[in-house]
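Input chain follows. Return structure tokens only.
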Amino acid sequence: MKILVIQQKMIGDVLTSSILFEALRKEYPNAQLHYLVYAHTTPVLEHNPFIDKILHFDFKFKKLIQFSCFLKEIRNEQYDAVIDVYAKLGSAVASKYSKAEVRVSFNKWYTKAFYTHHFSRNIIPETNAGPAIEKRLRLLKPILKNIPKEIKPKIYLTAKEKLKAKEYLESAGIISSKTLYMVSVLGSKESKTFPFNYLAEILDLIVANTNAQLLFNYIPSQKSDALKIYELCNAHTQKSIFINIFRQDLREFMALTSHCDALIGNEGGAVNMAKALDVPTFAIFSPGVPKENWSMYENGTTNVSVHIKDYHPELFTKYSTREVKQKSKELYDLFKPSYFEEKLLNFINANSK
């Protein structure tokens, strides 16, 4: 048995879809399991014992010859089954061209004909894993007899990576006996970023109540924005922020996060990675992102999230999905930290030293 899983999206999606390999490996221990992803997402998959081969291709490439060569490579692999979680036209063509006997994806009118089996994205979750997990596992129905109700995404760090991160933190002045939080200060784009002044207010609250040490998750090109948030914090909080501790390498960032007591801030890939490392998370959702889809393993203690819809549900009957996304900044401005202050305090009290 040779199976290809396709997930040409961002880190959170790639990490979440990696659960399929654990389920497949359990039923097909000798199968060849391949994963097609964007190259920049590969770090979250390294050392995963259930994946045999990682393939890369960017379907945004416009040159027909590149795509044609890629399709030939896919066909030459002679897959028995293709699970297309991406479900876009490019991946649908690749699935069909593979000549796999079983081709599975989500039900979309414009790609339906490319697959032998298709499933609705709509699902009523049966576990606190949430729909993002359960709807992916449902794609395995045509080839698995026993589908688990849930599997938690996992990141596999080596002992060497963890030790290197620990030594780096110690050399930078981090005290291991004190609480250490990773802060997801910026979303993937402006419309997914909690207002800077509100985030600074949250950080002041955290330090005042825990005297925690704070690390900022950002890349060098985002440093000016990270500094703006730093400067909005009060002087006492600034002393607790290690603004210059960061890692460009994604594996190194994950290793640093593994030593933190929690990750707090904007929902996104960093939150998903922290969960996969068993690091508690407090996630602030963008107004335009449905919390019910991505609040995986929400339990009120180690995994907590907030969304303005929790406090102003009437806004989401007043506006369409498109209008909500267009009004992201306006809705974020309404989402004052005071709404979830008690929930945040309960979280940090439960996840501090």
